[in-house]
Amino acid sequence: MQSKSKVLSVLLVGIMLFSMIIDVGISTNAAYVSATANEPVINWYQVSYTCPWVGSIEYIFSISTHTAEFSALQKGQIDFATITHQSDFETGQKDSNLWVNTSVQESFGLLAFAFGNPLTANVNFRYAISNLLNYQVITDKINDDGLLGIGTPYYLFPGIPFYKPFISENASLWYQKYESYNLSMAVYHLEQIPNVTHVNGQWYYQGKPLKLTFTYPSGDTPAEKLATYLQDQAASINLTIVPVQTTFAQLIEAATTPPYNAFNITTFGWVNLGPFAESWMQGIYTSPSNTGGFSNSTIDTLLDKASLAPSLTQAEVYVREADFYLQQQLPYIITSWSNAVDGIYLPGWADYIYLNVTSEYAYSIINVHPRGSFLNGTFIYSSVSSSAPRHINPYASASVYAFNVLGDIYPGLVSYEYANQTALLPLLAKSWNLQLIPKETLPNGDLIVNGSVLTVNLVHNATWDNGVPVTAYDVNFTIWWLDIPGMMGTNTFDGLHVNYTALYNNGEISTDYFGSQPYIVWTQVTSPYQIKIYMNASSYADEFDALDGYYVYPAFVFNTTNPATVYTEKIADLQSGGPYYFAGAFNNYQEYLVKANLHYARIDPLIFLQNVTPGKTYTFTDNVTAYVWDNSTLSNMPVQISNATVYVYLKYLGDGMPYENVTVNGKPFMVIAKNDGNGIYTANINTSSLKPGVYEIVAKAVWNAGGASRELFNFGSIAVGAVPTTTTTSTTTTPSSLPVVDIGIAVVAIVIIAAAVVLLRRR
């Protein structure tokens, strides 16, 4: 591990020099869909995977209840809200300014228990609580007649087609026999717990009256209903359960922090589960910090085997067995499988995307834009105040609300297609391939048997917003900084010595990432834009997760600070590289602002389209603005770069031409822009040698900062003469066991969506 880091330190030095001499080599393969760009809501199959399109997104946590949030939505004070009341849903359907809808959600709600407490750790206690729950009441009363979800006790929901083959019939039989709604059985199971006595109808534990607490997030109406229902059901057998409101952040901290005895019963949910049950179940149920301290070696072994299974059929066998043991052991009591129920404000906005099946929300909103314009406006996305994240920190944050922000500012290697979640889309990765390894001893001494190596090639035009290139070094750093393989021990990053065993034992590590991909045994950066990931496995799910299971974080930011220090930061150094950059926290951390990153490699150049008469000269203006993290304001501050050299290239778009550099007289078309001062550069593009068609403009600015090379890209497009209406496709060849969506290029720009990297998140 240490020797690997030393080698990569040398590679990092070479990155800056290498980036100066490479061909511009843009590998965006961006997708465009022909449409009007002004439809208020479109469907998931009309998606185009480029971004950003809106000027800024403001995430607010200042509204205390969902009722007040819906009222703000009606008034146009916010643009997105989650709906938790059937009456609000029905009102929204009648309001022409709103669009409300539901989607089947890969998400479940649960009761979690403190396994550091001998009482709540006893399986008979959890059986007793399960015996109190009538799931028809949960569907009707708590989930508003099924609007918010279906009350069900099962760990896998047959209503999601991906999960049906993994479901154990024995799990249902076990539930019906021991855990189903039956107040007499609840009494029986409580009486089986050591030190619990039942005298004259009263309950005692260790000789004292038994009184339990149920913590739930304030402002969450369904959770409050669940708390009241559980309190009433417990009272029917003279058991005292007291509901206690708390913030979501405090609730999650108690549920995930050893020794897991700071609560009795609590509730939250998991979202972003994705299509691979063997993967997300292994990620959740083999980690004690995810389950209030629960640990079971049989379940761990089965789910580990499932995640490493070479075939889907074999994975199904292991998961079905694990499904039965989970129902038997009840690390959680599943309360509901959820629907996404959301409302959006229509006036002034275009191209919300409705999702029929979703990992989290009923609409994709991150790439909505003002009607008739792009990269303008501020979209206000609201979550109730109890959902406010403890921090915005890539190393420590665990909630979906924090990652709504983090997912905007950090890039992923790939994303997935909404119509088929097992199909991958290139983002930072422009191509990849998987090669099977029957048997091989790696340089670190590990032996791979029936494993594989995943070779990932990165685009050459991705940068962090201060001009540092995004490279394979960042990918490698991310994997080991988060310790995604869960190898414990120590590691060294450019002189920073990290003891991961101590971090884990002290609860100072991201448990969402740690150990989530234990089959990764080694990585090798073979060039600044290629990394090989060696895996002691070869299943399709392993390949998927190795590509899609994490965002990529900047090594130069975090490789000199002890992770334990980063873990404590309210807002980390958020040097951005995704479609948006972090612009600040406001109103006592109740508002977080991100703004469009115009340097993002997957931006749609056609949103800048300008018509040019053939033979005329078009002047392209390049504003070279880098962003540097400012600890005093906790935001990225703009810096105009006045000492750059700007190279301007053209790419073919459409008209049957491949997506590659334009050549004139056998040489790449290139203009060096004039430096007009204050970070403004202009390039005169003579179109006399260009045939009619649409061209992408790629401006690569290169400069020196503190002895190191920096670069930023800006983009534009011109239509020379008549604009063709045909569509051409630029294909990314990606030999793989996974389906890959070839992201094509058409000449009419329209709607986009930023598909989130698949990461399990608590809600």
UniProtKB/TrEMBL annotation:
Gene3D superfamilies: Dipeptide-binding Protein, Domain 3 (3.10.105.10), Periplasmic binding protein-like II (3.40.190.10). Pfam families: SBP_bac_5. The chain crosses the membrane at residues 738-760. Signal peptide: none annotated. GO terms for molecular function: peptide transmembrane transporter activity. Keywords: Membrane, Signal, Transmembrane, Transmembrane helix, Transport. GO terms for biological process: peptide transport. InterPro entries: SBP_5, SBP_5_dom. The keyword Cell membrane does not apply. It comes from the Archaea. Residues 63-288 form the Solute-binding protein family domain. The keyword Cell cycle does not apply. Belongs to the bacterial solute-binding protein 5 family. This is Solute-binding protein family 5 domain-containing protein. It comes from Sulfuracidifex tepidarius.
